[in-house]
Amino acid sequence: MDLDKKLSRLTSAGPGGTSFLPPDDAAQARRARIERLRSTLVALGTRPDATPRRRSPGTGPDDHLPGEVRETEHGPVHVVDRWLEPHHCHGRVAVRSALGVSAEVVARLALDPALEGFDARRMVLLDTETTGLATGAGTIPFLVGMAWFEDESLRVQQLFLRRPGEEGPMLRVLADRLRWADCIVTYNGKAFDWPLLRTRFVMNRVPLPDAPPHLDLLSCARRVLKPRLEGLRLVRVESEVLGMVREGDVDGSLIPSLYFGYLHGEGSAALIPVIEHNANDLIALAAVLARLSAHFETLRPEDDPRDHLAYARLAVRCGDEPRAARFAEAAARGGGDPDVTVDGWLLCAWLARRRRDQPAERDALEAALREALAVAPDRAPEVHLALAKLCEHRLRRFADALHHAEHARAAEEADGHERRLARLRRRLARAAGA
């Protein structure tokens, strides 16, 4: 059945139905609806007749798009290719420094042992621009950005979907790159980009490649930057961590409407900022990875004490207690917010207790108490409680334990507090009787 007959069937009253218009008016209305459906198909890139027409270079709605259309064995793909020289910096960070990241450090930063053996020269930075924020069947990634290193230059390659019918070839190009990769690096990609792409592979009947280990830098940023940043959008992290402020960046909420406008024949000029936005996201991934890894690998005293404390807690989670101790002490001595200083000393004390270093534990707790009494009195009871436990159970100094316990009332439940005081008084009485 040809397209006109199909469209006529779609616009008919249906089996057994009756039109409420006179025959001539009904025929005219049906022709009008057919033309509207035909126009919609053309706007979506599907012609109702034979083979799609190719636009002449430099004319039509693609005349402003950078890049070129490349023929693949599965169909045409619009590709935008660019290289960044080795000396290129994104804010204060040289992009090529991402090549020097330690796989071991990255695995600990991500709390993912699967990343311990990856080669930075075979990582693929990945970011998509889509027609919506859901990951269901109705959302299409119309721009898939990839970046990887060739020698010391970063190659940024973007696959643009000129029309929905070209999604299959685009996904096959992506699949080839993923098969080459040792690691995928994204920002919120585990929750959004990869589930969406996986859905599109299935819907287009393109074989889904085995995904290499996935490093989601948003998770890393949450662990180490959330204490001092109000928001963790990539542009915010760029500004605060890399010193990079984008000028004229497109608002992400406008991107889907800009693409729909392109599909409806409004031209491609409005998509140039979208392509630049995507390229900047990819470059930022390399710079953020380099900066977070470098700051976790090597302690820098001039860094923010809140970062030091966050890195210390991360090191505890990945079982690297010597690194945690160095960062915790840096947080405690960094002269930052009183709560950060107290927390830094408390973590130093906890780590000292883990290695059975009682003098170091006591020194850290006493430093925490001095800070709390001076500028954070609401934190003093919990420090007194920690000292009471140390003096009673490990140092066996019951008089000191009782002194600290008497000031720790606000840090524990009333019943437990009274039992602690009674126990210490009995111990002191027995020690005096002996």
Beta-strand percentage? 5-15%
H-E order: HHEEEEHEEEHEHEHHHHHHHHHHH
Strand order of the largest sheet: 1-2-7-6-5-8-9
Sheet having the most strands: 7 strands, mixed
Instruction: Write down the overall geometry.
Output: elongated
Q: Helical content, roughly?
A: 40-55%
Structural Rg: 31 Å
How far is the first residue's CA from the last residue's CA?
A: 107 Å
Number of strands: 9
Instruction: Tally the helices.
Output: 16
- Give the integer mean of the pLDDT values: 88
| pLDDT < 50 stretches | 10-21, 45-60
- Structural class based on helices, strands and sheet pairing: alpha+beta
Notes on the structure:
The protein is an alpha+beta fold and 434 residues long. The protein contains 16 helices and nine strands. The protein has helices at 3-11, 23-43, 103-110, 167-180, 189-203, 217-225, 234-242, 255-263, 272-297, 305-317, 321-333, 338-354, 358-375, 380-394, 398-406, 414-433; strands spanning 68-72, 75-84, 89-90, 93-94, 123-130, 141-150, 153-160, 183-186, 214-216. It has a seven-stranded mixed sheet with strand order 1-2-7-6-5-8-9, with helices on both faces. A two-stranded antiparallel ribbon has the order 3-4. Strand 3 (89-90) and strand 4 form a beta hairpin. The N and C termini lie far apart (107 Å).
